[in-house]
Amino acid sequence: MSDKNSEIKTLKSKLCYERKNGYKILDDNELKSCEEFSVGYKDYLNKAKTERENVSFVINEAKKCGFVPFDKNHKYSPGEKVYIVNREKMIALAVIGKNGVKNGANLSIAHIDAPRLDLKPNPVVESNDFAMFKTHYYGGIKKYQWTSIPLSLHGRIVKKDGTYIDVCIGEKEDEPCFCVTDLLPHLAKEQMNKKMSEAIKGEDLNVMIGSRPFKCDEGSELVKLNILKILNEKYNIVEEDFISSDLELVPAMKAQDIGFDRSMIGGYAHDDRSCAYPSFRAIFDCGIPEKTAIVVLTDKEETGSDGNTGMQCRFVEYLIYDFADLDGVKGRDVLGKSKCLSADVNAAYDPTYTNNYEIANSSFINRGVVVEKYTGSGGKYGTSEASAEFTGEIRKMLNDNNIIWQSGELGKVDTGGGGTIAKYIANLNVDVIDIGVPVLSMHAPFEVISKIDLYMTYKAIQTFLK
Ligand code: MN
Ligand code: MN
Fold first, then answer.
1. Do the Cβ atoms of 335 and 430 come closer than 8 Å?
2. How many A from CA of 114 to the centre of ligand 2?
3. Per-residue pLDDT tens for 61-103?
């Protein structure tokens, strides 16, 4: 009888696909590496909350690792490190490979924009002795999640004379922060009976910025006037300057360990900074690669990758052309031979909402970096599907290097769906596949990931790039 049992066990481990929890496999040293990696990641999350802050954070870190601005006229040799910035909201880092781009390049692309509340162009209003910011939400949010949480204000204001000022207020303990109010339950009978998608409307996401009127008995909107006076004294701006600004309200919360066992990390914008951080750390640590290694951190993914800082603009294509010129080869040939990881998060299986997931094809916290052959929705609309060959190549790479990984799809077939930047890379005639970290509460102000998955994503990208 026990012989039969061990035979079944052997057969099972030989034939069946199993996604193992990393805590059951990793040794103490590897777990220590996961922990150490998460410390730097939390620091980055706290310091870089907008796409602009991400770009300047990455430039700083890259410089420390020897990266310099790209120069089209310089003759590069293997191992040289460069960066190229697009409008301070998108950045590419590259390490020149031993063969340059003659046999194509290896890319990892993640996005650094995240759901948030943007200020409207004319944001300051007053109502019943309250001054408020009118906002226009960015990306896919559940609006009710953005009420009654502390928000900080980040961004850039370009003044009348063309000079600008960068703003960051609400992150430090002694600074004021902001919030959207919500109705008390006692008076919310009507609101509570509404559909969740209608209970809080876009125009309800008004942000409290003041309640103290200007000391004067005459005139209207004296709270607003007082706020404008404070802003003028602090930043030397006037109301019209808001029109030429990029101002974003983001959760003021800090990234923090989750659970008594500290196995997880809670924080804002794991989507997609839990893939952006492993990407730039991986290229810092990739040595001198065979093929030129390129990491791109892009903006505008959450709104469809449109615009001149989104993945649909020609930035990456032209960059490849520039590298091709340096090696005396054709850009189109380089693109055709290039391979790319679209590093973006996946929806982790949530034990509270089991109905929305198909368990055999969901990704799980702690079971490693997720490989997603395709994204999209419905009948595979809006996706580039990675071929069996390219998926096989990535699978072999992960297995050969003992990287904990799992296959995952985004929820049940007909429950929704979503895309990534992968299809825009595929349009350039590049082989591309989605890989990334599984996330709980995706797009909420406070998302959750696992430390093991974060580190395994780093290991996967680093192995791919070198
Ligand atoms: Mn994403
Ligand atoms: Mn997203």
1. yes
2. 7
3. 999 999 999 999 999 999 999 999 999 999 999 999 999 999 9
Residue 91 alpha carbon to ligand 2 centre in Å: 19
Query: Confidence class of residue 1 from pLDDT cuts 50, 70 and 90?
Result: low
Give the pairing of strands 179-180 and 447-450.
unpaired
Structure tokens belonging to residue 137: 């939400």
Report the pLDDT averaged over residues 106-131. Answer: 98
Distance 112 CA to ligand 1 centre (A): 9
Measured in angstroms, how far is the CA atom of residue 50 from the centroid of ligand 2?
A: 14
Nearest ligand (C-alpha, residue 139): 2
pTM over 0.85: yes
| Ligand nearest, relative to CA of residue 372 | 1
Which domains are delineated in the chain? 8-114+268-465 (3.40.630.10), 116-251 (2.30.250.10)
8 Å CB contact between 98 and 300: no
pLDDT at 2 > cutoff 90: no
Determine the pLDDT at residue 269. 98
The phi, psi pair for 164, rounded to 5°, reads -135, 165
CA of 218 to the centre of ligand 2 (A): 48
Using the mean position of ligand 2's atoms as its centre, give its distance from the Cα of residue 115 in Å: 7
First to last CA, the chain: 49
**From ligand 1's centre to the CA of 141, what distance in Å?**
13
What φ, ψ does residue 388 adopt, rounded to 5°? -55, -40
Tell me how far the alpha carbon of residue 385 lies from the centroid of ligand 2, in angstroms: 19
> Structure tokens of 258?
């989750």
Q: Ligand 1 center to residue 345 CA distance, Å?
A: 5
Nearest to 225 by CA among 152, 126, 146, 136: 126
- Close Cβ partners of 161 (under 8 Å, ≥ 6 residues apart): none
CB atoms within 10 A of CB 211: 14
Span from the CA of 111 to the centroid of ligand 1 (angstroms): 7
